[in-house]
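User: Please fill in residues for this 355-position structure.
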């Protein structure tokens, strides 16, 4: 661990030198790349710097304890050793956590796809509830939400809604939301007052940059059509909606929320890049399907991850056995505690596995 920390510290100091180089300062690409790398290394560098200081002070205090001291001084030295030992253990734990492999997508914006699954109109209504939950959570985080495509039903539910969330670290928190979300409640459409179970699926994709997934014009087919609203009624007479098909993979992305055809095309290409990137990631992970799977989940949208039980006011995350009796707050976007618990569980699992 110490060798790895020293290597990180050396790299951090080297980056400091390079960022002072006029040639780097005049090159926006390298400047951005080196600045981000140093920013990522800074927490570990600062922890290691303090760790070395604590180790030196602890060594000095123990050496002093071995000398002939009066009772008052010996007690003072003992108190200092106790404090330094406690801090030493805290820093070791912090450093182990900082050295855990970081998801390279954690700082990215995300594209979220929510679809009503089993349950018909009730599933679509629940999909709309999930959309509101995530947009309120995003607002609380200071992130920006933009709808890219939506298909509604006559009751105001969403058969499908696709939207982007832009903000630093969005993927690091939202990635735990991929999977099947189950709701148990009495639907507004149910006259008999019976509790129904419905599901909606959520897929959270890290936004792929243009340089990561290059799409050539010859590999896509672009179709335009009139945008439509709830019930399929035309809401404009211009062909502003865009459907882009990636011919090599067959992946399709549609955007019709904007009034500009060019903007809709750009948004559809953004979704397309992210879906292609996600497909490549899933294919790569499939090669290692026999290896350990995280209990936090693989991001498979078919995996049931959470139940929202309205009669009992209960939310249960099945991956970590977390149950909370504060459904109303959760549906209003207060999912911070759930995400924090999932993050801690994932970190603990990585530490236990020695990764």
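Assistant: Residues filled in for all 355 positions:
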């Amino acid at each position: 661990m110490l060798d790895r920390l020293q290597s990180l510290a050396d790299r951090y100091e080297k980056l400091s030198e390079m960022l002072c180089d006029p040639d780097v300062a005049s090159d926006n690409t390298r400047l951005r790349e080196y600045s981000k790398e140093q920013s990522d290394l800074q927490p570990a560098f600062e922890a290691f710097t303090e760790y070395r200081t604590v180790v030196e002070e602890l060594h000095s205090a123990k050496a002093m304890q071995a000398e002939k001291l009066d009772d008052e001084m010996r007690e003072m030295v003992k108190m200092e050793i106790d404090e330094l030992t406690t801090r030493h253990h805290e820093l070791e734990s912090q450093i182990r956590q900082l050295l855990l492999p970081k998801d390279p997508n954690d700082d990215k914006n995300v594209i979220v796809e929510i679809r009503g699954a089993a349950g018909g109109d009730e599933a679509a209504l629940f999909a709309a509830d999930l959309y509101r939950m995530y947009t309120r959570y995003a607002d609380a985080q200071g992130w920006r939400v933009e709808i890219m495509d939506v298909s509604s039903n006559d009751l105001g539910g969403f058969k499908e809604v696709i939207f982007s969330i832009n903000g630093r670290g969005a993927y690091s928190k939202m990635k735990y939301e991929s999977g099947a979300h189950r709701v148990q409640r009495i639907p507004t459409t149910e006259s008999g007052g019976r509790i129904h179970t419905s599901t909606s699926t959520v897929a959270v994709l890290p936004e792929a940059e243009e340089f990561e997934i290059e799409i050539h014009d010859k590999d896509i087919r672009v179709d335009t059509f009139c945008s439509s609203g709830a019930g399929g009624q035309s809401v404009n007479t211009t062909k502003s909606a865009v459907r882009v098909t990636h011919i090599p993979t067959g992946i399709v992305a549609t955007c019709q929320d904007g009034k500009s055809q060019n903007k809709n095309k750009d948004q559809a290409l953004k979704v397309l890049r992210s879906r292609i990137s996600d497909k490549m990631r899933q294919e790569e992970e499939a090669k290692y399907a026999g290896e350990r799977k995280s209990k936090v989940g693989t991001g498979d949208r078919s995996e049931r991850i959470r139940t929202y039980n309205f009669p009992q006011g209960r939310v249960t995350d099945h991956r970590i056995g977390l149950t909370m009796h504060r459904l109303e707050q959760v549906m209003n976007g207060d999912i911070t505690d759930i995400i924090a618990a999932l993050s801690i569980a994932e970190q603990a699992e990585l530490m236990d596995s020695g990764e």
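For context: The radius of gyration is 26 Å.
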